[in-house]
Automatic annotation (TrEMBL):
Source organism of this protein record: Pterulicium gracile
Top-rank taxon: Eukaryota
Protein name (database record): Aminoglycoside phosphotransferase domain-containing protein
InterPro entries associated with the record: Kinase-like_dom_sf
Amino acid sequence: MDAVKPTNTNVRFLACSLPCPEDDAEQDDGWYRFLVDGKHVKYVATYPKALGGDALDRSLAQIVLGELLPALPPGDWNSGHKVTFVETWTEVYAAVETLWCPVSVNEVDFKQVQNLKGNVLVVTNPFMNVGIPVVVKIATWPWGIPYLEAETTAYRAICDTGVGPRFLAHITEGINGRVIGFAMEWIPNARAAGPGDLEACKEALGRLHALGFILGDINNFNFLVRDGARHKSLKMKWTG
């Protein structure tokens, strides 16, 4: 008897968005994001609980790809529905449209160093920033694009002012794909502002206000402080 050949060996599990277990809404599909052949991003929607699992379960990727997901059909498509893939199509997903930086980088070319939170990662790319780690923020799912659009616009407004981390590049989904995020300067050895940094925070906010903008959320975690032997530097970070 011939051995069963593994399926989806050319597929990488990127992310999933599953209905909350306590939700009884049968209309809520599960969403999965895959990378095929190292360059094509595809979105797959399934019926509720069709593939099961918990989005926080680290073994979910192995289980879905190795046991539950049938072979992805070939062809030029980026969206599919139903576990049996009786239907696939090409969907035009929303993209960040405020493109002002001359540099664009493919998300596939990044190597993750650290997960700061959710869709905010510290990564490296040998062809960017001379290999020094940077921070990337991407909209994993199309419905997150409006937040990244607003933040990208904000960075254009404060570019070269020294108020926030340097904006380094737009991030595309695949080669020449839609823009889904951005890369910015990573400030190593920085900490969140504390009570002793109040005056420095006021000074930084004053520089932002002088440009005609307000931060909107002035909690201490939106201020990055780097202490030095002779000085203290402070930069604000934007949150979407």
